[in-house]
């Protein structure tokens, strides 16, 4: 029956970073949260942080490299990135879906392998 249908969702607390899994009924109403996507230009990395620049105002922002997760390895100078904000706080960062990388060194049998940001 349609009454018992649920949707399982993984939620992350924006204050603590803790993740929980919740189930909601498909007919249940939830409060909508508005997250703002802002474009930035990657400048450089300093320790565990990265420096970004807002392209219109040239205002600089320093955020944790962890916002980009595994994709932080793909950050390079002048790259256009997106940072998601909620209530004025940076929640996550993303790189373009495709990036061009130069392979400096590889095992002889690694020819033809590719990697893409996730």
UniProtKB/TrEMBL annotation:
Pfam families documented for this protein: EFP
Organism listed in the record: Aegilops tauschii subsp. strangulata
GO CC annotations, alphabetized: cytoplasm
Every Translation elongation factor P/YeiP central domain range: 37-91
Alphabetical list of PANTHER family matching this protein: ELONGATION FACTOR P, TRANSLATION ELONGATION FACTOR KOW-LIKE DOMAIN-CONTAINING PROTEIN
GO MF term list: translation elongation factor activity
CDD domains: S1_EF-P_repeat_1
Name of the molecule in the record: Translation elongation factor P/YeiP central domain-containing protein
InterPro entries: NA-bd_OB-fold (IPR012340), Transl_elong_fac_P/YeiP (IPR020599), Transl_elong_P/YeiP_cen (IPR001059)
